[in-house]
Amino acid sequence: QVQLVESGGGLVQPGGSLRLSCVASGFTFSRHTMSWYRQAPGKERERVAFITNDGKHIDSVASVKGRFTNSRNNPANTLSLQMNSLKPEDTAIYFCKNAFGNWGQGTQVTVSS
User: Fold this and answer.
1) What is d(CA 33, CA 106) in angstroms, rounded to the nearest whole number?
2) Largest Cα–Cα distance in the chain?
3) Computed over its alpha carbons, how large is the radius of gyration of the chain?
4) What is the separation, in whole angstroms, between the first and last Cα of the chain?
């Protein structure tokens, strides 16, 4: 069955960095556009970034441009999100999603001093 397992979240001070990973199984990862979403308390889930199956097209929401880098390793079935210069407003649960609409369980990112 399809599995998406996120990891790498945690508590970090403003200005710090985290690297999230999403390990995929149960589907052909290399054929899927993959996305990162986040959901902050009391807010709707929003798409943060996506990357096409071949990694050639990457885009992200304006609020994270220049700070977050989305990448993938198809042979390793892994999606990554490098997050730098983190801000308190980045606090959320971060999820990965494949093109089928399958979600991982999420990983909590908390940015606080």
Assistant:
1) 18
2) 40
3) 13
4) 40
